[in-house]
């Protein structure tokens, strides 16, 4: 499912269970225009994943809230937890590999590690 994300639908979309992939992009960005069709094609192959696009020109507050300083930036969120964020356009094979890795995550282990981080200092 492909969704345009805004400040109005961000929380309800990314805080739900399941996987959300977010493409932070802008219309003037050449690499963003190259990555867009790859991202959209993956959305067609993975109907159980939400593929969200954030136009950083129209949603600067979302980009700022997540420290987006370069575009495109791809973010993977699973069960409301950001599990991946990286600037740069990915080739199709790398995007598919990322999707497989996010699907394979043991989210109980991810939550345990997150809970242990403050104790480690």
UniProtKB/TrEMBL annotation:
Organism superkingdom: Bacteria
GO molecular function: protein-disulfide reductase activity
Organism: Thermobispora bispora (strain ATCC 19993 / DSM 43833 / CBS 139.67 / JCM 10125 / KCTC 9307 / NBRC 14880 / R51)
Family designation: Belongs to the thioredoxin family.
Start and end residues of each Thioredoxin domain: 1-104
Active site: 29, 32
Chain coiled-coil ranges: none
UniProt name for this protein: Thioredoxin
């Amino acid at each position: 499912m492909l969704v345009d994300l805004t400040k109005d639908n961000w929380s309800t979309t990314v805080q739900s269970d399941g996987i959300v992939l977010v493409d932070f992009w802008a219309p003037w960005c050449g690499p963003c225009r190259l990555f867009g069709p790859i991202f959209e094609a993956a959305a067609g192959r993975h109907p159980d994943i939400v593929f969200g696009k954030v136009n950083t020109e129209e949603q600067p507050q979302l980009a700022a809230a997540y420290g987006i300083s370069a575009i495109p930036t791809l973010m993977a969120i699973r069960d409301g937890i950001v599990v991946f964020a990286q600037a740069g356009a990915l080739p199709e094979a790398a995007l598919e590999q990322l999707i497989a890795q996010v699907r394979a995550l043991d989210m109980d282990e991810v939550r345990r590690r997150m809970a242990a981080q403050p104790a480690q200092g």
